[in-house]
């Protein structure tokens, strides 16, 4: 501690530089840190302008400065004894106990300034690298799209020729692969634009229920073919017309419904849209996409919205996908001022919900009727619980099994092996708890379908139906 007239200053070993000077600008005290940083043996008696020549000037008339004493810390330049300098963050206040005395507290920020410059340089390089990457991805995806579309066009031209069934099956596979490739290209391009901050929304006025009708029309056939029920309800509080990016709202809903369809073999998918808030000419819309599919463990939920992430590798192998869809959905939802969430339970289904803010034009219109006839079905009390269908041997389970097997054998007769495998997956899920003898037949049927062995399929199909009649009767 250092004693100075009536005050004792416990600052000798403080980490910051401490200087005390009077109204004439003469230094009366400097702590060890100040002496070490400024490379002086002693500073007492020296003018403060030796340390801060850009801030103070000591003349015969006293101290001259434009510094505002007692304000917030300011960035100054301190000079060492050898006249080299370094930046400091300093605060200089007038002493309340000793009139005409000033206390300077300063921290050396040379390292901080250096690190800030380094960080800024790294950020600059990162921005440049991101720009180069984004341009590269845009160019590559554009170049990829050209040959893929070329293959697709030629495949469709071949359909007009007289081809045997085996060749048609191969062409359908090529067509499907090209479609999948285009979807992947679009996802990568969207992701790249979002990551680079170059993605912009295009809001415009559109008819909300027509949009939802379009979403339904895009998915209803695939869901019905798979044997899933599909319900859609829209709150009458949502205006007839809203202002927003219709294309991107459709993209989000389409991705969530496609995921629900992919991971659901039994039960239903429900889409709901409600209005939850209004602020001036903006409304908050809340969407829910519910399914009765495989569900997600709590520990895996955080992975869902990450880039290139699936819950686990087996999901990607079995169901496909790049792991970009939900990440893109999250970023699009956030661009629209909302957020996306998921609630799920393993083997009991998932509910994805998201909110967005949209504009309203003119007086809000109230639509009193439900959007679709299917909406009424969501309130039926006699709806069969999915648990009853999953439990092997229940009347509901046997009925669903026979229905799926009928569709499966029809696909086999039409040589639509892709859909046959889809119904086979449903059969396997429905017989998950079945006795061993049933499980063996199901496994043999699955292998026969994979090999496209018609005779073996019909044999195992008949055997499985016999077992179901025996155990279901």
Briefly say what this structure is.
This protein has helices spanning 32-38, 110-158, 165-196, 208-225, 246-262, 313-319, 325-335, 374-377, 386-390, 395-413, 417-430, 436-450, 454-472, and strands at residues 2-4, 7-9, 17-22, 27-30, 56-59, 62-65, 74-79, 85-94, 101-108, 204-207, 229-234, 241-244, 268-279, 282-291, 340-345, 349-360.
Could you describe the 3D structure shown?
The protein has helices spanning 32-38, 110-158, 165-196, 208-225, 246-262, 313-319, 325-335, 374-377, 386-390, 395-413, 417-430, 436-450, 454-472, and strands at 2-4, 7-9, 17-22, 27-30, 56-59, 62-65, 74-79, 85-94, 101-108, 204-207, 229-234, 241-244, 268-279, 282-291, 340-345, 349-360. By secondary structure, it is α+β, with helices and mostly antiparallel strands. The protein folds into four domains: 2-108, Beta-Lactamase (2-Layer Sandwich), CATH 3.30.450; 114-196, Helix Hairpins (Orthogonal Bundle), CATH 1.10.287; 204-383, Histidine kinase-like ATPase, C-terminal domain (Heat Shock Protein 90), CATH 3.30.565.10; 389-472, Four Helix Bundle (Hemerythrin (Met), subunit A) (Up-down Bundle), CATH 1.20.120. The longest helix is centred in the first third of the chain and has 49 residues, at 110-158.
